[in-house]
Amino acid sequence: MIMAKKPIRSAKPKRAAKLAKPKKPAKPAPPPTPAPAQVTALDLLRRLSESVGVSGDEGAARKIIREAVAPLADEVKVDTLGNLFAVKHGPPRAPRVLLAAHMDEVGFMIVGIDGDGLLKFEAVGGLDDRILLGKPVWVGENRVPGVIGMKPIHLVKGSEVESVVKIDSLRIDIGATSKEGASRMAKPGDRAAFAAMFAELGPTVRGKALDDRAGCAALVEVLRGKNYPVELICAFTVQEEVGLRGARVAGFAANADAAIIIDCTPANDLPLADDGDENTRYNTRLGYGPAIYTHDGSTLHDRRLVKYVSAAAEAKGLPYQLRQPGGGGTDASAIQRSRAGVPVVSVSIPGRYIHSPAAIVSASDFHNTAKLIRAALENWDGKVLKR
Amino acid sequence: MKPLIKKLVESYGPSGHEDQTRDLIRAEIKGLADYVTVDPLGNLIAVIKKKSKSGKKVMLAAHMDEIGVMVSHVDSKGFARFVPIGGVSALTCVGGRVRFADGTVGVIGIEKRDNTSNLPSFDQLFIDVGATSAENCPVKVGDAAGFHRSFEEMGTRLVAKSMDDRIGCAVLIEVMRGLKRTPHEVQFAFTVQEEVGTRGAGPSAFGLEPDLALSVDVTRTGDTPKGVRMEVSLGGGAAIKVRDSGMIADPRIVALLEQRAAEGKILAQREVLEGGTTDAKPIQVSRIGVPSGCVSIPCRHIHTPSEMVDMRDVQAAVNLIVYTLERAIEL
């Protein structure tokens, strides 16, 4: 995110606005964009981005992916935790290669309803309290529209503007005026997600939940490929954002010889300082191609796979970048340690402003990620894992 | 044993980059085990097969990796920014030297700081490999380096980088050499990626399915000026772990080791470590659970480029493990 040095505020508040409360509960928002007959990769990404699938409640996203992979895979199944597997058989005794992308997104969980009909909520996954104020949200299965309420700038006094409002003191306003009214539209345990529509902005796309629906859509593109010399197991995992929980069992079930994890990682490639210093902590850069991992907060990626995937990009003339070593992590961590160990590498699509309602991903990075994984699979042989 | 220790501690092997150390150990243990393999994550496994029906499957684990640094950015003047691999302190970095896999050596420098009373952050440090531009810099993003320091002997004390845990690897190799007859299947696991969160040992235990396991690693001591409050001292013998912050040793294993130490007149001390853990942590909870314990080598100045152990403790650890393995184990 961009950090403004000083809080931005209107030059002169004109009039103290009244928080108008509608008499009737608002109607649920329209369902996400319906499926077009011929889906392109970006159409699928649009539908996935606009679907709601907060960790532990990924059903809506899973349904879309399941429909998309059904004609492409030899086997499709859902495991006990909700991970979706799509398997494409290879030749007999082919190496088992697992591809994984997580379906879940960060969001909120309703934990209580106040007497005035406002909803108490908690974060699900890593959210920055500073970005929550004033954001529209969808609550529950029916996507009841709401907003994370805030005091208008007109009423903010003195140094108040400099402090971060913690999530505990925030409420979601769904337009109800009483506890009873609110209870008809939402209940504790309901998830809520940022209400944000997908958009194409020049060479980029903007949307919520691109982390990691972009990875899911890229994985579907990989499944369109034919005749891979591997037993290809694609896992669309659950509960990554709350601690790689789905991948743990998916890794065990897949019993793979190697795994490639497709995720979305921050691109922090914006000017950091006004003095023209070189940005040395960008993590990844937008438009520089798929980001191949070496070392993150929870995984040292298999060096043979790092080398192999990089070489596959070079052979195909595809751009790629090495994600800066540092913190963070992906499903790779859980998969690497499943059973007797699995060599892993993460390849991520760079995304600016991820874990917000408006992440930006380069369309070419997205397409090139799918192309890179396809290229890596097409030439897979016994030499890849040779020591 | 000292030439072996010198070779091991001076080899290159930051977490995830254990190849050179693994090759070295593989050569040292040639012919000592019934079979040797490398598992999917890179753990080196050497197994001496069971000779008696009543024998157990005993896993011994020591990690090959050491702490280090990894390049995160090379700037336009050829200076490399880096992140730590494992528990590196910025305090011990400045002015230190690091060495990359290909032998390239770099010096760790620091930016000018307005406030020198605080600990520097890694953001303020850089590696100077003598380059003048990004183009002529011999290292690139993702390259890993270990600390660069030679082995020193001071009487019975030995000093080097990466005593943690090459000294454990040396103990395992000496156990293989010293083990004359054992009823047990002994599974030697030289593990990877311990320093970044004991990642290699769990999968290796899943593959080996042992009946019980011992990890052999260094532990802190409480015998330095105003140091941590801890009973363990350098030269006080092999340390039998009771607990650390990640694992409670199986009491039957603690009792067995103490009994064998007394019978064999082997110098040993009890260890309770308040901060830190070892490969025994993931091994203990692999599959349906593995009774686990730890024979520790007391070590001063851990995670600095000058880790110090006492040869008498090292020898005691070898003797205790050999003595225990040569006798029946009933838990």
How many extended strands of chain B? Answer: 17
Count of individual domains of chain B: 2
Strand content bin of chain B:
25-35%
The chain-level structural class of chain A is: alpha+beta
Q: Could you describe the largest sheet of chain B, including whether it forms a barrel?
A: 8 strands, mixed
Helicity range of chain B: 10-25%
Provide mean pLDDT of chain A, rounded. Answer: 90
Question: CATH architecture of the largest domain in chain B, please?
Answer: 3-Layer(aba) Sandwich
Strand content of chain A: 15-25%
Number of domains of chain A: 2
Class per helix and strand makeup of chain B? alpha+beta
Count of β-strands of chain A: 17
Question: For this structure, what is the CATH class of the largest domain in chain A?
Answer: Alpha Beta
Q: What's the helical proportion of residues of chain A?
A: 10-25%
Descriptive overview:
Chain A has helices at residues 41-50, 59-69, 179-183, 210-223, 245-254, 303-316, 332-336, 363-378, and strands spanning 75-78, 84-88, 96-102, 107-113, 119-124, 136-139, 144-148, 172-173, 191-194, 199-201, 204-207, 231-237, 258-266, 291-292, 321-322, 344-352, 359-362. With 387 residues, chain A is α+β, with helices and mostly antiparallel strands. Chain A has two domains: 41-105 and 208-273 and 282-385, Aminopeptidase (3-Layer(aba) Sandwich), CATH 3.40.630; 107-194, Elongation Factor Tu (Ef-tu), domain 3 (Beta Barrel). In chain A, strand 14, helix 6 and strand 15 (321-322) form a beta-alpha-beta unit. In chain A, helix 1 (41-50) runs antiparallel to helix 4 (210-223) and helix 6 packs across helix 8. Chain B has 331 residues and is of the alpha+beta class. Chain B folds into two domains: 2-66 and 161-325, Zn peptidases (Aminopeptidase), CATH 3.40.630; 69-147, Peptidase M42, domain 2 (Elongation Factor Tu (Ef-tu), domain 3, Beta Barrel), CATH 2.40.30. Helices cover 23% and strands 27% of the residues of chain B. Chain B contains seven helices and 17 strands. In chain B, the strands form three sheets. Chain B has an eight-stranded mixed sheet with strand order 1-2-12-3-13-16-14-15, with helices on both faces. A six-stranded antiparallel sheet of chain B has the order 5-4-9-6-7-8, with no helix packed on it. In chain B, strands 10-11-17 form a three-stranded antiparallel sheet. The two termini of chain B are 32 Å apart. At the A-B interface, loops of A face strand 4, strand 5 and helix 4 of B.
